[in-house]
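Hi R.,

Quick one: here's the Centrosomal protein CEP104 N-terminal domain-containing protein sequence you asked about.
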Amino acid sequence: FKKEYMPPKKIEFKVVHVTSEDEKFPASDLDSDKHGPLVHGWASQRYCLYPIDLIIQFNKKIVLKKVQILSHQYLIASKIEFYIGDSPETSDHEGSFESAKYTRLGYVELSSNEKTDLKARELKSVHVDAEGLFLKLVLHKNFLNRLNVYNQVGIIAINVIGIDLDDEINQEMLKNNDADPTVLAAIKRADYISPLDDLAFAMYQDADISQIIRKLDKKKTDCVLTERYDEAKRLKLAILELKKIGERLARYDIEKRQAIEEEDYEKAKIKKQQIQEYRKETYRQLQANNLLEFID
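And here's the predicted structure, written out as tokens:
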């Protein structure tokens, strides 16, 4: 089959409905464009009623392949159910979450997090295969712990991987019975998902560095397709190094924010200087290795 199949990718979405939210931690913080190390995420109201419905809408109808949930470290739901939503009215951008029909996909149970002393965030991944324009999460009652004094639940981030059904190539291939069976099978499975589309990458990488990594990764793919393997290898090594740099910059940024919250402004100043110097050194290295040409 001559046309190139577009593999599952990170899907853009916005939260369109939630039955409970803390005004300091709105559900809009879960929108796909908010991913990053400094995001606070969403939390329910104090002493809220359960279960809680949270509905996200994709920009276009998709084949949903994978959902990732990064739970709050102590505002933890005991269980989260997943439903895909669609209807004739939701076949375009005018669809409403209220008129959609929802089909249950399954559920996940979360850890109480007592073993990590309520410090670590749990990342849950769910593999599915369903078409729709909406994804509804139903969150059940929280775990009781010493830090969750108001019986809330919270989610730091949601990530969705899927196939864009509005993509002309994918639509044609799905409808074409004569297409390569191997390619058709690939469409129906999430065999390969780019590590750059994984939630862990988005949440623990400096935003500027992550954009550079994405550009270099695209260039690396182009090099492989044109059989320029030495160049592809050089870009691969550069990406691996940049991932370490991005993680360190993100950590500095988090430490700076914590210092500000604690009103330790001297420490915040030091962290700001570290970030500036480290970022400047990174760009110097990119220039020395002749990589800036790929990211302009």
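The first strand starts at residue 9 and ends at 10.

Cheers,
M.
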